[in-house]
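Work package 3, deliverable 3.1, input record:
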Amino acid sequence: MTTAELAALSPLVATALTALVAMLLAAFRRNHRLVFWVCQLGLLAALAAVHACAPGAGTSVVGAPAAPLLRIDNFFVFFATLFLLLAMAVAVMLAQYFRRRPECRDGAEEAYILLVVAALGALVLAAADHFASLFIGVELMGLASIVLVAWPSGAARDMDRLQGRSLEAGLRYLILSAAASALLLFGIAILYLQSGSLAFAAIPPRQGDYLILLGTGLFLAGMAFKLSVVPFHLWTADVYQGAPTPVTALIATLTKGALIAVLLRFLAAMPPVQTQAALPALVVLASLSMVVGNLLALRQENIKRLLAYSSIAHMGYLLVPVMAAGSGQLSAQAVAFYVAAYTITTLGAFSVVNGVSEGAGSDGYQVSRYRGLLWRAPWLGASFMLILLSLAGIPLTLGFVGKFYIFAAGADARLWLPVAMVVVGSVIGLYYYLRIILAMAQSPEGGEETPGGWRERWLSYGLTALLVVLGIYPAPLVDWLPVL
Amino acid sequence: MAGALIGIPLLPLLGSALLLLAGKRLGERGSAAVGVGSVLLAALLTAWVIAGFVAGGEPYTVTLGQWFSVAGLTVTPGLHFDGLAAVMTGVITGVGLLIHWYSAAYMAGEEGYSRYFGYLNLFVAAMLVLVLADNFLLLYLGWEGVGLCSYLLIGFWYREPANGYAARKAFVVTRVGDVALAVALFMLVGQFGTLHIETVVDRAWQQTPGTHWLALLLLIGAVGKSAQLPLQTWLPDAMAGPTPVSALIHAATMVTAGVYLIARSHELFLMAPPVMDLVALVGGLTLFLAACSALVQTDLKRILAYSTISQIGYMFFALGTGAFSAAVFHLMTHAFFKALLFLAAGQVILSLHHEQDIRRMGGLARPMPFSLACFAIGGAALAALPLTAGFYSKDAILMNGYALAGGTPAWFLALAGALVTALYSARMVLRVFFGEAVTRPDPDRRPALVVPLAVLSVLSLAGALIPRPLGDFFADLGRGGVPETVHIAVLAMPWLGLAMGLGFWRYGGAVRDRWQDSALAAWWRRGWGFDTAYQWLLIRPFIGLARANRDDIADGLTAAVTASGRAANAGLSALQNGRIRWYAAFIAAGAILTIALVGR
């Protein structure tokens, strides 16, 4: 291993060290505040390392140059930055969650550590150019989030019920995820059989090779499950609902963003013949996701389930520029921008939900809980309204610019059916986003209090400000978009 | 002079604003003072401006500033004063003043007194804008303004549903014409790129294609506003408004707006000879049909309404034959004598406690000699008996019409119409003032009622002497000679009609009764069945359509989208049953689907 390779690896090393240090600290002295700050500092150091040690425009590879395990390029820099910031934000949300639910605080240290491990998996995926690194990334991230989904531990009054639900969600996620990992591995094995290499680019450009097609199909099915794309979406709502809200935010953003990044890299690295062969499957999966996801959200009364279905639809939108991979630079830019927009917006949504619903009892997640929010807590309500408008893709928000990129990339690659489906899906989607806004605008019934002050809400306000500012003036983000 | 010109429409407008905003606080006296005063000032200003114009003789324009400039169309409306505008403003402010004066007494004690004067002032302002506009768009503003005031005043006594219906009918029917006028404006912008009247008219000489359509659309607009065939049906019902309103709006001024429009853009019409012929034919048919209807009406105001339609028909006939100045002449004299007749009728109606049916009148000559005198003068002018103003103007129309166009069918209709006009004038005066008294009158001789009547009587007699400073506004058309026999026929018709009327009155009792009961008379009384025809051809199918579409058919489409969305939502939600086996089965199915699609 050369020094250059070591330097390129430094963000991953920094993140891994953070997890180790935090684990050791927790072993000696359980103090969740201390672990929180150590993790934040470690992630910050990794962020610094991404920008300090990663080559500016060039690329350095780790592993054999012919079949690199990791590729550290500006694509990695963009996504690594995004994921590290995201992990820091989720850590803040976790801290807020534990503050609101002292009964869950027992063992909170491990939650931060698992979060850092998941971030490490995401960083690996952002750089992966090889099936081995891909699988390591997927499993690092997946296993960490399974534990997080089943989080609430300890022995408080309503813990049994709460834990029961989380545990059930975690178990369900574990079993199904394992099945999907099996599909993924089987697909990788078949591809290896035909190419003799685990590198993405090594897949032979043979047309009509059934084993390659079978391998690609199995690989895509496994990825589609992890991305919760229709018809692999059934687990999504249950897991989103069962998990603690910060964890839901994590699996809705970090997992999805990292998998999309690696899928894009995979499709771009594959020979064009094979990418073309995969196209029909991607078109169908994306179209189904956009329509079915939005339809499922239509009359959903539980806000976390609603956001789950919404994320299914958003994955459908995201697949449009992904399948345009290989037909121009616009694809990678659109994916990067949309992932950033989706991450900021979805994090904002869950941070509001975290503030409004957590600790509000069993019906806290009902849409009716948001009734009159614009009157009870005008700033929080306005911020949630903007977040929902951004999810719906209304102009002057980040969501609109992202959707514009998707249209541009889709039209550029002449993917007319998926682009038409984006339109259909957006129209249906508008209905349920506006339904929540309507509920928020209605006069509040009774003297329901909205807990929390600035300490609970600054993250929501910050993310809202970001999505409005970048929605009106997206140039800073646009300038920073990577090329693949 | 410029300021004075702007002041003419501005004063009534301010009066209207004051009355409508603070009318309640002004009280009856204050409202009358503001309402009549503003028109009085406008009339004085008009007199001064006209005097200045006659002395100077040059038309001039006062630009009001730029309204808007968009897509190559810049509208800088202004007020334009020339001979035609002088005649129109003179009539509007002069007759308007007298009718305001009369109204002050006529409407005394009515609910909504200040509202009445507010609307009436607004009407005068809008009408003045209409005739002073140098731009078709500003003209259209006035055009719609008078339409609005007409609607408001027909339905002034809005508690009676029939009045509201009449107001809506007037509004909707005239709207047909208004739409045509709007389309004409769009075409003007398309063809000439401007709405400035003088520019348009100047360029009309260059024979642009489409002038025919333009002229036709303007004609439809004029026909709607001036209650000509086939859009005349609203005017008889418009009599639901107070009688002074009928006098001002539905006789003297607003209904002549169509005549003014054609006169103002006559160069355009001269470029479209077929449309000119159509104008004449519309006028001829209207004047004859309406005169026949007037002959059999039993409601005093409806007689006058049909008579108004008929007289405007004469003006259209004159316009169509190219006798533009004769048309404007008749417009002026008609304003005098028809206002006189309406106001006198108002006095009679008031004295008979709001009785309008002439079958319950009679023998009013003795108790109400002044009204008789007014009616006699007005009727004589209407019938065009010599020495009245109406004689000169109608003579000019018939003689010029023959000289310019010859003995067309329209001309013969106009000639026959002259006879019928004299006949129904005679019938009206005789039925109301002679014979046996049916109802005891309670004569009302308030000076505020009497003075305007006296002034209008003088004008109806000597109005023809008022100089009309039209100058060479209307191009002189070459004219043929008029045979002596034609002239004799024209002169004889009113006398013949009068003689017939007297004859039927004195000797033809049985014939008269049988005629009044005949089916033909009933048909005429219903205005030749136009209302019935429209009822069957337009209103009923429309209402039927509206009924059939009560649950908006187009809504079904959106409802279907919603319903299918909900159904899909329900179906898909049912799949989310929480069973891991089921979920795993779905993953297997999805994997098979993906592989199949990749292998395709």
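The radius of gyration of chain A is 21 Å.
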